[in-house]
């Protein structure tokens, strides 16, 4: 949806090649995309009176009587788009129906989708990530936050200035909206957050997982249909192995975006955006960054160890565990301080 017109539009198109919308005031230029399974096709058209380009999304009837799920999807997408007024989300324009199906009209954005573009520089991918997060911040700051549910390269358009545009709100829902069982796990495998696969409530962190998966595809120059090649036997992305050239700080940011448990991801797009802004994409970690990572890892191991001890301990050993925890904590803090002072001393030592 929203791909640029190749070689421009010249002359009339045979009426039997595309649907005839002349009575509605539009003429199709070409097909932009097709979801055969869902019975949806997207066309680029122009208004006969103004020559303005427009996108027409078709919800085709499989039978003479419209399927209730098609009607619901059509109405749901329109309702969501009518809530949005963002410059990088194509605006809802109009809708109409014919004997063949329902049709929804949207603003046309002159930008190709990510799926048709390849070999972005890592720094450019960071700019794209920031641009998408800015859109998500707007969607999530509403009284009733909007969750897109299908962020992937096909649904992101990017212009020459690396401005991102988010399209296809066919699966989008307001946070907290009740969904039928048939609407669960309808996203795209590999980009769908684990909580959606298992029917758990979606949150602002759900779209962050999909964006993280999209960024990993871009960084590894992997087509979205081959995303399974980047996921290990435990259904997790191993960023350290597939992105060895990427700065460790950026690796950790990405890993947090695609954490399996949504509680371990960034809470929302605003937090993820703020964390990303100052993170370098390329290069090795500095000594200070390495130290901070090591300290964080040691603390995590220490806390996990205490949790295990607390689980297997009997009630009568509570005091002993508390004393042991305090002693271990002091030892760990002493080691961390020693390591920190050693690195600081090394960094401040004059060259001979």
- String of helices and strands: EEEHEEHEEEEHHHHHHH
Strand portion:
5-15%
Supply Rg. Answer: 25 Å
Q: Return the CATH architecture of the largest domain.
A: Orthogonal Bundle
State the total count of DSSP E strands: 9
User: Which range best describes the helical content: under 10%, 10-25%, 25-40%, 40-55%, 55-70% or over 70%?
Assistant: 25-40%
Q: How many DSSP helices?
A: 9
What can be said about this structure in brief?
With 352 residues, the chain is α+β, with helices and mostly antiparallel strands. The protein has helices at 68-81, 122-140, 194-197, 204-219, 239-242, 248-257, 269-277, 287-312, 318-348; strands at 26-35, 40-47, 53-60, 92-97, 101-107, 146-147, 156-158, 164-166, 173-174.
Task: Describe the 3D structure.
- With 352 residues, the chain is an alpha+beta fold.
- The chain has three domains: 22-107, Phosphorylase Kinase, domain 1 (2-Layer Sandwich), CATH 3.30.200.20; 114-277, Transferase(Phosphotransferase) domain 1 (Transferase(Phosphotransferase), domain 1); 287-348.
- The chain is built from nine helices and nine strands.
- Helix 8 (287-312) runs antiparallel to helix 9.
- The chain is globular, with a radius of gyration of 25 Å.
Helix/strand layout:
Layout: E1 26-35, E2 40-47, E3 53-60, H1 68-81, E4 92-97, E5 101-107, H2 122-140, E6 146-147, E7 156-158, E8 164-166, E9 173-174, H3 194-197, H4 204-219, H5 239-242, H6 248-257, H7 269-277, H8 287-312, H9 318-348
Antiparallel strand pairs: 1-2, 2-3, 3-5, 4-5, 6-9, 7-8
Helix pairs in contact: 2-4, 2-7, 8-9
